[in-house]
Design goal:
34% of the residues lie in helices and 22% in strands. It is built from eleven helices and 13 strands.
Length: 373
């Protein structure tokens, strides 16, 4: 039985960034416009006036300072308040597949591989732009891979679920090299007219190459153990789908976009995730002092701080639990992979860490890794 390792990661960052100040200016202009247009109903008590946002509110609530997006102009347009991403003809690569390929190319280059050496492709992300053909099969074709490919959606935990799936394929002998990609255009499912959530998400794509140890190069990451967990909850939800395509998420259909009960999520997810991590550490015979770094899902700075503290037994430093949330915002499944990609180069052989994600479902996944020589 082959031992699975992570041999490389890749990252694609869109060229457009929106600061909190820019986002607040657009949102507040929209609020003024909406309140003016509905002034009579507001005065009569039929509607409640919309409240403006602020940079201070956003940073206190989330720790986010900016986010990258595929389309900046549409998001900030007060007459639109949603990204304007043109539909492409079937003969052209889809935008989700395109950004996945961009991340995949970096991972493959770092591992000294090309697409023809990939046996399987998993596209693991929160929001696929279509039901079929699978985005993964399109990525497979674009990089010239053979074998098989499929999509999977476990919301913000999709990447860790994808890593375990890829590792299982390697262990079972179904593949030697698995490419797992996480293209996330989260701006497409975000309600930019909702004060409580308009700042949360950004766009990005990541890639992870999972290989059998015997075909991986030096400096790979041994996968010490993985664990997955789901628990049903309505506290994070998106009702958009082909059964309600008649009105795909317009202003009057806010539940067809991202909605959440943030306080409930915080209260319920923190103990669930920290308990899951500690239980898996116990199973693997690991102590907190064995972990050099936690690469946590980048959803909320306060949530990460509390989870890290419960796992490590003390308040984590930036080095122990790095943040990319401030510049990338919440990028769903890609968040923990961005943190791992950007903040793992200083590891030496024998150093251990944890990749962990959690989100809607609820879902959570842990991947404990050790740097190899």
């Amino acid at each position: 039985m082959s031992r699975p390792v992570i041999s490389a990661t890749g990252l694609y960052t869109p060229p457009n960034s929106i600061s909190n100040a820019e986002l607040v200016a657009s949102f507040n202009a929209w609020v003024d416009k909406w309140n003016s247009e509905n002034a009579a109903d507001i005065a009569a008590g039929a509607l409640q006036a919309k409240q403006p946002s602020s940079v201070e509110f956003i940073e206190k609530a989330s720790g986010i300072k900016s986010r990258f997006v595929i389309d900046k102009e549409g998001v900030l347009d007060t007459g639109r308040m949603t990204p304007n991403i043109a539909e492409r003809p079937n003969e052209q690569i889809s935008v989700l597949a395109e950004i996945a390929v961009n991340a995949a190319k970096e991972a493959l280059a770092k591992a000294g591989k090309d697409g023809r050496q990939v046996d399987a492709v998993i596209c693991a992300a929160s929001n696929m732009q279509r039901a079929y053909p699978a985005m993964a099969v399109e990525v497979q074709a674009a990089i010239g891979a053979e074998g098989f490919a499929f999509d999977m959606n476990v919301a913000c935990s999709s990447a860790t679920f994808g890593i375990q799936t890829g590792a299982d394929f390697v262990r079972a002998g179904h593949a030697k090299t698995v490419l797992m990609v996480n293209p996330e255009i989260c701006s497409g499912h975000l309600n930019f007219t909702d004060r409580d959530s308009h700042f949360i998400f950004g766009d990005v794509a990541t890639a992870v190459l999972i290989e059998a140890e015997e075909v991986a190069g030096k400096g790979a990451w041994n996968i010490l153990g993985t664990h997955l967990k789901t628990q049903f909850s309505n506290n994070i939800r998106n009702n958009f789908g082909f059964l309600n395509r008649g009105d795909p998420g317009g202003m009057g259909k806010a539940d067809k976009l991202f909605v959440q009960e943030g306080r409930k999520v915080f209260k319920e997810v923190v103990p669930m995730v920290s308990g899951m991590i500690l239980g898996e550490m116990d199973r693997l015979g690991l102590k907190a002092s064995d972990l050099k770094r936690l690469w946590l899902h980048q959803a909320n700075a306060g949530m990460n701080r509390l989870i890290a503290e419960r796992v490590l037994g003390h308040e984590a430093s930036e080095d122990e639990s790095p943040t990319v949330l401030d510049t990338y915002a919440n990028t769903s499944s890609a968040g923990s992979i961005i943190a791992f990609h950007k903040r793992s180069q200083d590891f030496k052989a024998g150093d251990k860490g944890l990749i962990c994600s959690f989100g809607a479902g609820y879902s959570a996944g842990t991947v404990f890794v050790e740097k190899m020589a």
